[in-house]
Design brief:
Length: 202
């Protein structure tokens, strides 16, 4: 049919996402994106509107793919926030152990490169991180618990998760990352107990 696109847009986004994930935004050129997707510059601009808009689309694809897994983990133990957070960390470790995708986390990598990003893209990264924190905070919600302590704990959990991705990218062995999550789980359990008894530190 005349005018019909002769390529799979979703597959092109998947391939572009892998390039951004592997190389980072700053080191990903249009030539590299074209080689990965099989699209010329004209098709890239015509379909996605340019590098920045394609990158944001890749970020959304990444967030949707792994966000679903995190959501299932965080809702797997509705009456036990501690176990929900354990499941959340397990999803992170499983992703970091997956050799079929680049090391680390596209979102964490993008956050560390914020200075190189277009302001709209930087805000997009911040919004995705805020969304992750909101998901964790919802899983921590416990009637009668200290709300401020749970807010702080949600930030801590996200910080640990993003740190795991950075450490993985730097070549830290998986057993060492598991050790980090074991300590984090202990911290979360202690903080939840304090929040539930009103003894959280301020």
């Amino acid at each position: 049919m005349a005018g019909r696109k002769q390529f799979d847009v979703d597959e092109a986004v998947r391939r572009a996402m892998a390039v951004f994930w592997q190389r980072g935004y700053a080191d990903t050129s249009l030539d590299l994106l074209g080689a990965a997707t099989g699209l010329g510059r004209g098709s890239l601009y015509g379909t996605f509107g340019g590098k920045d808009s394609l990158f944001r689309r890749c970020l959304d694809r990444y967030a949707a793919t792994y966000g679903d897994r995190y959501d299932r983990a965080l809702t797997s133990h509705p009456d036990d926030p501690g176990r929900a957070i354990e499941a959340f960390f397990d999803v992170t470790l499983d992703r970091l152990a997956d050799r079929s995708v680049p090391d680390g986390c596209l979102l964490a990598q993008s956050a560390t490169q914020s200075a190189t990003l277009h302001p709209e893209t930087r805000s997009h990264v911040q919004a995705l991180l805020a969304d992750q924190r909101a998901r964790v905070r919802a899983a921590l919600t416990t009637p009668g618990a200290d709300s401020r302590a749970l807010d702080d704990l949600a930030t801590y959990v996200v910080a640990v998760t993003q740190s795991l991705a950075v450490l993985s990218r730097a070549g830290t062995p998986l057993p060492d990352l598991r050790a980090v999550t074991r300590l984090a789980r202990t911290t979360v359990s202690t903080a939840l107990a304090q929040a539930n008894t009103g003894h959280a530190t301020t």
